[in-house]
Amino acid sequence: MLPPVRCFTCGRPLGHLWPRFRELVASGKTPGEALDELGVDRYCCRRTLFTSVTYIEHAAKYRVGIHVPPERLKMWG
Fold first, then answer.
1. Residue 29's domain is classified under what CATH number?
2. Which residues bind Zn(2+)?
3. Alpha helices (H) in 1-77, listed in sequence order
4. Dihedral, CA atoms, 12, 10, 33, 54, nearest 10 degrees?
5. Residue 65 domain flag
6. Can you say which residues are annotated as belonging to the binding site for Zn(2+)?
7. Binding site: which residues?
């Protein structure tokens, strides 16, 4: 999942806040403190940023695509 571009409920743009949010949390602030510092007041926007997880690191470990054995390909023509 990519970082959210907009709030799923109200549509407020949030994509520009994602890098700073991750940076603040990595520096030791709680997610709530980071959201307060970024000025995210609406609970729907806070939920969208707080619950977003990037899975790209996990997905990159797996190969994309399906291996089809040659004998199965002959079966289709």
1. 1.10.10.60
2. 7, 10, 44-45
3. 18-26, 31-38, 43-50, 56-59, 70-75
4. -80
5. yes
6. 7, 10, 44-45
7. 7, 10, 44-45
